Amino acid sequence: MVGNLHHNSSTAAIVLAAGASNRYGGFPKACLAIGDETAVRRVVRICDESGADPVIVVTGPHDPEIRRALVGSTARIVRNERWVAGRTGSLQTGIQLLEGPTDVLVWPIDHPFVERATLERLTDARAQDPLAVWFLPMFAGQGGHPILLRREVLPALAMLGPDAPLRGLISGFGPQVRRVAVGDAGVVANVDDPESYRHFSAQWRHTWTGA
After folding, report:
1. Strand pairing of 147-149 and 103-108?
2. Residue 2: what pLDDT?
3. Which residues, at least 6 apart from 181, have a Cβ–Cβ distance to it below 8 Å?
4. β-bridge mates for residue 134, sequence order
5. CATH number 3.40.50.300 given to 11-208
6. Does the CA dihedral 185-6-95-174 come out positive or negative?
7. Alpha carbon 159 to chain centroid distance?
């Protein structure tokens, strides 16, 4: 089925939820309400519905709260003991749990409003472009998250320092980076602070969901 994350390739999802959420006074961004779900529950659900297997959630200081939010979920949860070293280190922690070669959907928890259709657009692009290895969703000319990486990217990712930005690898892949236009404002809706969360929540309720 076109649009399923398993279309022509096995795909794991790694949800990055290891930050301290300092701008929220220590309340975990993963537990923010998105409709009637927590952010992490919504992201895991969409990954599940899209056929990702496994779905791995990488936690940090808020591991207990996130585990409670995911009770009954099929997600595999792993705590990055060195979460303070950087987000790339958390991604590397998740990758270490993978069994065998697989493509990877990388979804930071601070982009919780993304719609399932965006994952379908990324996997359609993968099916159409066998040479590309990095699929980056674009909304209104701006790159966002989640990103889809073919397994060929993982060795280079493993060589990065835990605090090195993942985007630093893009130039090395050049034309193998496929920018995928999407109609989903959620890919650039970063809930980095409470003001952003309130803003994007209102947008999502009144515009994206039609409520």
Report:
1. antiparallel
2. 42
3. 138, 139
4. 149, 177
5. no
6. negative
7. 20
